[in-house]
């Protein structure tokens, strides 16, 4: 097969790759979710939350280097997966060393995650796993969209070491999909930028989202008086679900929706459960995905998945 990547390069594969290196945790997470982890021989250090990732070679670089190019080359990979966060110079150096690299396009939406999951399945010969994963995601996101339709959206702020995520970011997409208004976009923030205490206090968000690397609201007078803090409406989400454009983002979205709109979500989820046949589940279905006082994760259902994706995959490799 031959497929053009984000650099415009035609990436050609003569047979299904058996040795794959992932250059970011999002690419590794996709490989795990579609059932292709056994093909992975190298991962970066931030993928160590994945089961048995510690048994794979660590290809992270030191200092300012994201990737140890010599290590990647030494693994003799059939394919290297390089998400958009990987510098193009790194991609070029690997290609100059004779390595086949597929560079992903930037991911800022849920649709982009569907796309990357499908593309990955095609590249590594796991179309059936990719099809099931995308169908499961669409099923859960469909329930969320049903739940939040017509609901009043609370003001929500994502806070991480004084930074926040505004327009054009994946985290903004998560907040919007879960039925919240992102405070950062309301004050004109785009991308990832610092946000002052004064702005936060003035906006007075109803909810504050944190991640496990910085799980506490600053201990300052202004923050202590925020509605979100006074009413104990802060949510700590595992960073691998909040910050990585990969399938497990579903857990961040569904749990946020469950907190923002509990009654609407329960009603929509009950409706989905009545009309959905369980044929596949996510590998981490029962994992706790939001950690706040008294709040556990929740189980998910999956969509009916046909064999069309698998048949198309077989045809692509002929």
Describe the fold and architecture.
One of its GO terms (biological process) is cellular response to iron ion. InterPro entries: ABC_Transporter_SBP, ABC_transptr_periplasmic_BD, Peripla_PGF_1, Vit_B12_bind_prot. By secondary structure, the chain is an alpha/beta fold. The protein has a domain at 2-106: 3-Layer(aba) Sandwich (Rossmann fold). The chain contains 14 helices and 13 strands. It has helices at residues 25-33, 69-74, 88-96, 110-124, 127-148, 170-177, 183-186, 197-203, 221-224, 227-230, 239-242, 249-260, 262-275, 308-316; strands at residues 2-4, 10-12, 20-22, 40-43, 57-58, 79-82, 101-103, 155-158, 163-165, 181-182, 192-194, 207-211, 234-237. The strands form four sheets. It has a five-stranded parallel beta sheet, with helices on both faces. It has a four-stranded parallel beta sheet with strand order 10-8-12-13. The chain has a two-stranded antiparallel ribbon with strand order 1-2. The chain is globular and about 60 Å long. It starts with a strand and ends with a helix. Residues 276-312 and 314-318 have low confidence and may be disordered.
